[in-house]
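tool=predict chain=A
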Amino acid sequence: MKNDLSCEVVKDLLPLYIDDLTSDVTNGAIEDHIHSCSQCSEVLIRMSEPEIFSEDGSADIDFLKKNRKINKRNILIGIIATFVIVLTD
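tool=predict ok
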């Protein structure tokens, strides 16, 4: 079977792969891609590393948490803008 997984698909699957939640077929496809793609291999290594804690004991903010915070802020701004527009009409 030919491995047609793109880097984007592999990066989406890596969290499931790391947690051993993917099938054997998917594991094989991911591993084939990882062996031929140094960029995805590096992403897998970074995702597999343990979480680093700061001196105060709190975990450093990871990519998803940072995006979640940005999305919440954008949603709040959108709600406020909509509220202001409705009140001014």
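The chain has four helices and no strands. The chain has two domains: 1-48, 61-89.
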